[in-house]
Amino acid sequence: MSSDLPPLPALRAFEAAARLGSVSRAADELHVTHGAVSRHIRTLEEALGTPLFARQGRGLVLTDAGERLREASGEAFGRLREAWRGLRRHAGHAPLVLGCSGSLLARWVIPRLARLGEDLPQLTLHLSATEQPPGPDLGGLDAALLLASPPWPPGWRVLALGPERIGPVMSPRMAAADAGLSVANMARLPLLGTRSRPQAWPEWAQANGLAPDALPVANDFEHLLYLLEAAVAGLGVAIAPQPLVADDLASGRLVAPWGFVETSAQWVLCVDARNGDRRIDAFADWLRRELEAPADR
User: Fold this and answer.
1) Does pLDDT of 87 surpass 90?
2) Peptide bond before 198: cis, by omega within 30 degrees of 0?
3) Rounded to two decimals, what is the model's pTM?
4) How many whole angstroms separate alpha carbon 230 and alpha carbon 43?
5) pLDDT by residue (tens digit) across 170-207?
6) Mind listing the domains of the chain with CATH numbers?
7) Per-residue pLDDT for 295 more than 80?
């Protein structure tokens, strides 16, 4: 191993872990295993003869050596990413790397890819699913499609697409079995939620004149995908963003007896403020139209 430069695969793994503050999140971003990232970091530490991370409680913190290497590697990889994106955009064949949660990807983005190809043939997407919100540098993404609220990192340009609207949904069979459906008696129903949006039920309750803690959740699911399948199976009442269940409502797999209310969150497309890719604004306009369009067109 040359002493002039660290092994670049190991340095890339270290930079991602240091930037994201987590070996697991670095593994997700790099599409490798947790063990692979750990081995790369050990390689650097053995070559240096000093640790780069120290354990603090359940997390990791950078040592002094780790901080120095993070500053240098972060700047170098950041400049490389920006130069590479610029070169590929100039060459005219770079896909737009879009990040979003797995639930958004599966239930909303993928079903619309064919229409996107027809409406914006000049745009090719490379899709990246992640359950963690992107860091200030967007973690190598060209853009992130989010359901979120400000404040936003100062280096982002945030294109608002529309307000988030959420509501309770259930299987038609479950709705038919309960003739006394009303907001007032919802607390006696099995309510389902997700760990990623624990505030959804409290926000909906407040919008309907109830106390935030009036609707206790009987079962939490890790992902919205699992939550909605549980609702379809008749296991309880789920809370979900309207666009993600619009197709289910149109097909009759789910019903929404109480409709939907706006929350403080928004649908947004987030990009690096320095990204001058002209396709971004056209893509944002297309996303707005899709969010406003009826599900059964």
Assistant:
1) no
2) no
3) 0.69
4) 45
5) 999 988 876 567 777 788 889 999 988 888 999 999 99
6) 8-88 (1.10.10.10), 95-158+268-292 (3.40.190.10), 164-264 (3.40.190.10)
7) no
How far apart are the C-alpha atoms of 149 and 160, rounded to whole Å?
A: 11
**Encoding tokens for residue 144?**
């992130």
Neighbouring C-alpha atoms within 13 Å toward the C-beta of 177: 9
CA–CA separation, 110 and 105 (whole Å): 6
Q: CA 200 to CA 239: how far, in whole Å?
A: 7
Specify whether the CB–CB gap between 193 and 200 falls below 8 A: yes
Quote the distance between the C-alpha of residue 81 and its chain's center.
Answer: 21
Q: How high is the pLDDT of residue 289? A: 96
DSSP-assigned letter for residue 140: G
pLDDT at 1 over 50: no
Taking a C-beta distance cutoff of 8 angstroms, is the pair 267, 287 a contact?
Answer: yes
pLDDT tens, residue by residue, 2-20: 567 788 899 999 999 999 8
pLDDT of residue 222: 87
Q: What's the one-letter identity of residue 250?
A: A
In contact, 168 and 258? CB cutoff 8 Å: yes
As a whole number of angstroms, the distance between CA 23 and CA 4 comes to 26
The alpha carbon of 3 is separated from its chain's Cα centroid by a whole number of angstroms, namely 39
Say if CB 133 and CB 101 are below 8 A apart.
no
| Confidence class for position 89, pLDDT limits 50, 70, 90 | low
pLDDT-derived band of residue 278, with 50, 70 and 90 as boundaries?
confident
Tokens 């206790």, residue located: 216
Kindly state the tokens that stand for 42.
């050990």
Q: DSSP states of 174-216 as a string?
A: HHHH-TT--GGGGGGS-EEEETT-TTHHHHHHHHTT--TTSS-
